[in-house]
Amino acid sequence: MVKNGGSRFFFGLMVIPCVILCFISVVSFSTFAAENNKIKSKVRAGDSSGDYCILFAKNEGESKEGGTTYQDIILGEDGPCSFAIWGQVTVCFASILLGTLYTVKALVGVKVLSCFTLFETVLLIITGILDFVVAIVITAGLDTTCRSFRASGSLCGYTTLYVNHNHNDKIKFYPNINASKATAWIGTVILGILAILHLIMICAYFRKLGKREDPPPYEPMTTEDGDTEKTPAAV
């Protein structure tokens, strides 16, 4: 156990990664949503139906108009993009909740291992898994889209397109979506480190608790009268 002064300092430090995690989650989902919505608005100018997601887009070949060749891109289904956005929103709210708990514990001076520790650990593990899946979805979806562009000799995310068979101006999405991918992976690492730290604290606590509950060994001891009695052995 850590004394109250040490626990306050410890939980004060724990607030810092939560603030960082909240910031990068906001950057991730806001950047991703803004970029995907920009592409949606371009497509819906000519077609208001269908799913529009820059992830897992496919290149259907080339189309020509007025002597100009365009890449015909079919956007992916909306599910992966919605999951990526709302997954990061969930991570943001979880980081706010964790930061609030750490702040309260720092101000009150709660011991490092308290009734909230198990809840914090479970929340960190679940949120870490969620952020990990989000990072995988963005990475795989962006790679699939870029392979579709590069297969036709175009730069990823910066070319004149026919998107869902509608002519659009040049779009440049790769830098922002790639930044969203990077922040998702950074968040996964932060959550993983915090979860491992909590698991180490819990394991250390139960090890100490197990040692305290072990009965002390006994050894026979002979009195002055020659009688033998059992007394606790010296530790």
From TrEMBL:
It is a multi-pass membrane protein. Residues 214-235 are annotated as: Disordered. It is found in: Membrane. The keyword Signal does not apply. InterPro entries: TMEM179-179B (IPR059010). The chain crosses the membrane at residues 9-34, 83-104, 116-142, 182-206. Keywords: Membrane, Transmembrane, Transmembrane helix. The keyword Transmembrane applies. It comes from the Eukaryota. Its main location: membrane. Belongs to the TMEM179 family. This is Uncharacterized protein.
